[in-house]
């Protein structure tokens, strides 16, 4: 087996040798597209220092320090973050039924039909993340239940199936919905092609500051926060991919294997982009969606159908009955660490990624009314994630109750990835499905990386609008950078280290999103009823 250093060299050699002429040509044709040095280099320096610190120390020491940072941040700011997210949910209700509900996001005809629009939001959650957490998140709540409940009790089972619905439900997607609304307003009402988060704060601070040092500072913090959020996406899903690889090919799980998998995503993306196979990226994304929902239908029909239906119904009722309690639960007396380890982690993770998601939702929502946008996006996003959790969580619960898989033992000895694969091995036709799940998971992470590098490239270059493509070399660079950070997290090991990167990333994003929100409320005072209440032309 190759050493870790050799793997890094192999990855860089592969990237550098793949369609070199194409990459150089792209760089030359993009000569006029210059990097924004004050936005590009400070985050890069931060990443270099962070990765260097990790590799210069033992995994145990780094893990201990990251765990300490995680505990300090979640204990000090966890309550504030829960209040903030709950406030965003209340804002959704305000915009859906308040004075802005009938205002329209632009006067043009909607670009997509209502069903297509809802479908894009609904299917955007068909990825490896919902399979990973849909399969295994519940087990952590059985081990460490909320509200002082006894671990592994029947009551802990109830809450274990309900909490994933809460973490992937209405209140979670209220973040994307609010910032999607803000960007849709800027795109189609203000007619501003926003690429950088700083542009969304112009009303609050003025053009001079936003085009000066303050705007650059906001964008620097965004890049750092976004890198933290994407690294978490990679870090928490890599163990699942590795578990599938070791199951199918019988190889040993080690840092070298992790590095090969992570860097192969970067190399594969370079091949697709450098050879002009952009349609290939789209086809991979389509496969991800179709296979994901086909898998759901298969498990629902040939798996424990009754338990899936009954378990989801019971959990839905439990969430609705305790929604406010769960939203503001910080556990100050039992101090189990459950809300800090999960609810606050999830809110921080979503916050680190919210601006990218908001820009996507805003761009596809031209011509919608505010009410239509808020209700439609909340319902579609929640349904798109809940359908995965309804099927996978209740299937996993049936495996746990059957006693056929020693989940706790596998988790303790081999980690989360192997435990997930052991559960999936109980699927009907598992021998075939395991192979397709590996393909599905690999493609899901590939499409995630493709979108993330596009966002980072757009933000760190000058004078790019939403219609222009960033230079190829920039996307390659950020792909490799994200891969190296993810390898560093694999070096530390464990899910907690990846969770800590998103907590670090969420701190600057918390500040940025608050500033954007204040700027938006200042701006919409000028949103005249005469201009926005007109129906779109030719509707």
Task: Describe it.
By secondary structure, this protein is mainly α. It is 77% helix and 0% strand. It has 23 helices and no strands. It has helices at 4-17, 20-29, 37-56, 59-97, 114-123, 128-143, 154-167, 170-188, 202-205, 207-210, 213-249, 255-274, 278-302, 305-321, 323-327, 338-363, 370-402, 407-414, 416-424, 430-459, 472-492, 495-523, 529-532. It is globular, with a radius of gyration of 23 Å. It starts with a helix and ends in a 7-residue tail after the last helix.
Number of helices: 23
What does the largest sheet look like? none
Question: What spatial form do the alpha-carbon principal axes imply?
Answer: globular
Find the structural class using helix and strand composition: mainly alpha
Radius of gyration: 23 Å
Order of helices and strands: HHHHHHHHHHHHHHHHHHHHHHH
User: Uncertain segments of ≥5 residues (pLDDT<50)?
Assistant: 1-31, 535-539
- How much beta, percentage-wise? under 5%
Output mean pLDDT: 88
The end-to-end distance, rounded to whole angstroms, is 63 Å
* DSSP E strands, number: 0
Helix percentage? over 70%
In short:
The chain is 77% helix and 0% strand. It is an all-alpha fold.
Sum up the structure in keywords:
single chain, mainly alpha, 0% strand, globular
Helices, strands, pairings?
Layout: H1 4-17, H2 20-29, H3 37-56, H4 59-97, H5 114-123, H6 128-143, H7 154-167, H8 170-188, H9 202-205, H10 207-210, H11 213-249, H12 255-274, H13 278-302, H14 305-321, H15 323-327, H16 338-363, H17 370-402, H18 407-414, H19 416-424, H20 430-459, H21 472-492, H22 495-523, H23 529-532
């Amino acid at each position: 087996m190759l050493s870790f250093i050799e793997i890094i060299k192999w990855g860089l050699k592969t990237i550098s040798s793949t369609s070199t002429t194409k990459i150089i040509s792209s760089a030359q044709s993009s000569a006029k597209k210059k990097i924004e040095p004050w936005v590009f280099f400070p985050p890069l320096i931060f990443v270099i220092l962070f990765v260097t610190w990790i590799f210069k120390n033992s995994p145990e020491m780094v893990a201990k320090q990251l765990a300490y940072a995680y505990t300090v941040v979640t204990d000090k700011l966890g309550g504030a973050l829960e209040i903030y997210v709950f406030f965003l949910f209340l804002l959704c209700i305000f915009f859906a039924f308040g004075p802005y509900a009938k205002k329209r996001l632009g006067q043009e005809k909607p670009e997509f039909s209502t069903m297509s629009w809802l479908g894009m939001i609904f299917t955007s959650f068909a990825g490896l993340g919902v399979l990973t957490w849909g399969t295994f998140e519940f087990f952590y709540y059985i081990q460490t239940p909320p509200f002082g409940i006894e671990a592994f009790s029947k009551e802990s089972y109830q809450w274990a199936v309900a909490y994933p619905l809460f973490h992937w439900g209405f209140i979670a997607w209220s973040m994307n919905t609010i910032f999607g609304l803000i960007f849709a307003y800027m795109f189609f009402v203000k007619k501003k092609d926003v690429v950088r988060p700083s542009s969304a704060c112009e009303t609050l601070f003025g053009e001079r500051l936003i085009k000066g040092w303050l705007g650059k500072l906001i964008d620097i913090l965004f890049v750092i926060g976004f890198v933290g959020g994407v690294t978490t996406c990679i870090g928490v899903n890599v163990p699942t991919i590795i578990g599938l690889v070791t199951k199918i090919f019988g190889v040993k799980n080690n840092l070298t294997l992790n590095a090969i998998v992570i860097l192969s995503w970067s190399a594969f993306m370079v091949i697709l982009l450098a050879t002009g196979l952009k349609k290939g990226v789209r086809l991979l994304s389509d496969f991800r969606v179709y296979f994901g929902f086909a898998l759901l239908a298969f498990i629902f029909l040939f798996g424990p159908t009754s338990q899936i239906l009954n378990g989801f119904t019971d959990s839905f009722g439990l969430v609705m009955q305790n929604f406010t309690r769960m939203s503001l639960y910080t556990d100050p007396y039992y101090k189990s660490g459950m809300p800090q380890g999960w609810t606050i982690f999830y809110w921080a993770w979503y916050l680190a990624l919210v601006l990218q998601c908001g820009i996507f939702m805003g761009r596809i929502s031209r011509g919608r009314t505010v009410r239509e946008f808020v209700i439609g996006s909340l319902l579609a996003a929640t349904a798109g994630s809940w359908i995965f959790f309804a099927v996978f969580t209740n299937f996993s619960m049936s495996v746990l109750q059957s006693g056929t898989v020693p989940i706790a033992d596998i988790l303790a000895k081999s980690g989360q990835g192997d435990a997930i694969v052991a559960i999936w091995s109980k699927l009907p036709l598992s021998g075939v499905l395991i192979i397709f799940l590996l393909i599905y998971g690999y493609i899901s992470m590939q499409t995630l990386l493709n979108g993330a590098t596009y966002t980072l490239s757009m933000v760190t270059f000058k004078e790019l609008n939403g219609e222009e493509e960033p230079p190829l070399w920039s996307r390659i660079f950020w792909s490799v950078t994200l891969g190296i950070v993810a390898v560093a997290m694999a070096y530390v090991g464990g899910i907690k280290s990846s969770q800590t990167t998103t907590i670090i990333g969420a701190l600057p994003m918390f500040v940025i999103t608050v500033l954007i929100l204040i700027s938006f409320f200042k701006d919409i005072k000028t949103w005249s009823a005469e201009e926005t209440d007109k129906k779109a032309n030719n509707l």
